[in-house]
Fold:
Amino acid sequence: MDTLNTLINLGLSNQEAAVYITTLKLGAGPASAVAKETGLKRTTVYPILKSLAKKGFVSVAFKGTHRQYQAQRPQKLAHYYERQLEAFNSIIPSLNSLEKKQAQSLGLRFIETRDELKRFYDEILSEYKNKSYYIISSAGGWEGIDPEFFVQYRKDRGEQNIKTKLILTADSAGISPRDPELLRDVKFLPAKYHFRSTIDIYKDKVLIVSPELTSLAVVIAIPAMTDVFKAVFEILWDYLDKI
Structure:
């Protein structure tokens, strides 16, 4: 990338970049010298120099009653941008928090860690006691997130009288338990369909779990979308009976 384009990528206009480079070459001097070197009118150069001074690329001094413009040294500018980047990095957690609050207001919740995900499932045990929900899943992908926890979770779910209908990938058959006390009604997809994610479809929300997501999981609590997921599950459930 050439010098001019690099300066433009830092936020300068074409003319600002050209004037800064010219000022750097000339050293301290009046606007008239910059105008002559760049071929721009002085009336055009003055506001450009003023803008560059405001952005920190040019300093202004007086020699008698005349303004002298001098380009800031590149190393000083580099240090300035390093400090700006450090300042921005320091507020990233706050910005992420604002983004999550906005997502929550729209009916989205992001789950970042395994501990958060396990807390969510613990809440389901009490919230859905004596109820039921649907699941589309790869048993290996889901259980592999934390095998000890999820094997126990299945048992706890059955003890809470939570019934589940599951549509699982074909490769889940070897590890999917058949214990009737788990209260699971299971159908398997044809072998040609592969995925590692899990979708839990509840009455009021949908949980999508995948180690491949930026976040470990996302909860969607938007009624229209929940209804769509329920309908898709029921269509698949009926389709699997036919094949």
User: Anything to note?
Assistant: The domain at 3-72 is CATH 1.10.10.10 (Arc Repressor Mutant, subunit A). The chain has a mean pLDDT of 88. The CA atoms of residues 143 and 151 lie 7 Å apart. The chain has two domains: 3-72, 106-242.
